[in-house]
Amino acid sequence: MEILKERILKEGKVFHGNVIKVDSFLNHQIDPVLIKEIGKEFCRRFGDRGVSKVLTIEASGIPVAVMTGLELNVPVVFAKKQKSANICENVFSSTIKSFTKGTASTVIVSKEYLSNKDRVLIVDDFLAEGQAVLGLADIIKQSGASLVGAGIVIEKGFQEGCKRLTSMGIHVESLAVIKSIDEGKISFDI
Ligand code: 5GP
């Protein structure tokens, strides 16, 4: 997606530990015009797969998921990061290791909002090692729903996430694949 790649090149900042920040349009300030286009692109790529729900994880996945849900005309659910260790029985839960923070956190989704009738599209802002998508896929599995695929805004292609998810049979569509960030310079796969 060319307009996305241009924005990453113009505004993306590279931090220690292979972390890229796009705070000016996705991770802090949101550019609704760009996010709407991203929603349309996911709709173009997944629109014929009978998606009944979009699932993401708080916080940065939410705007992208909402625009995707709007285009697909389906509800959007976000997994909540749970602070207390108390998991009640009316939720699905999974533990996800955060790539950026290095910590593990439990995420939950109410059993009210996912069922075995659902066909679920996962959407997230970044793909690094694939842990967030795997945690969400685990929740989908617990609910008995079908996983349609994963729509990723920015994939860091030099990390293992896409390979890992694909080898598990998860269909991944990334709108911008970063090939490398050598010496702070971002370059894309063609
Ligand atoms: P993974 O679970 O695939 O290792 O990492 C993806 C998750 O970690 C995403 O939900 C995203 O929020 C966060 N993440 C991973 N790498 C980056 C990055 O380079 N920049 C930002 N802003 N978030 C990242």
Topology (SSEs and partners):
Layout: H1 2-11, E1 13-15, E2 19-21, H2 23-27, H3 32-46, E3 53-57, H4 61-72, E4 76-82, E5 91-97, E6 104-110, E7 119-127, H5 131-143, E8 146-156, H6 161-167, E9 172-180, E10 187-188
Helix pairs in contact: 3-4
Guanosine-5'-monophosphate is lined by residues 19-21, 27, 57, 60, 99-100, 124-132, 161.
Q: What do you see in this structure?
A:
The chain has 190 residues and is α/β, with parallel strands linked by helices. The protein has one domain: Rossmann fold. The protein is built from six helices and ten strands. It has helices spanning 2-11, 23-27, 32-46, 61-72, 131-143, 161-167; strands at 13-15, 19-21, 53-57, 76-82, 91-97, 104-110, 119-127, 146-156, 172-180, 187-188. An eight-stranded mixed β-sheet has the order 5-6-4-3-7-8-9-10, sandwiched between helices. Helix 5 (131-143) links the parallel strand 7 (119-127) and strand 8 (146-156). Helix 3 (32-46) packs across helix 4. The termini are close together. The model has no long low-confidence stretch (mean pLDDT 95). The protein binds guanosine-5'-monophosphate.
* Average pLDDT taken over every residue: 95
Report the order of strands and helices.
HEEHHEHEEEEHEHEE
Range of helix content: 25-40%
Between the first and last Cα atoms, what is the distance in angstroms? 11 Å
Q: What is the number of domains?
A: 1
Ions, cofactors and other ligands present here are:
guanosine-5'-monophosphate
If strands are numbered along the chain, what order do they take across the biggest sheet? 5-6-4-3-7-8-9-10
How much strand? 25-35%
Major beta sheet summary: 8 strands, mixed
What CATH architecture label applies?
Answer: 3-Layer(aba) Sandwich
Identify the overall geometry: globular
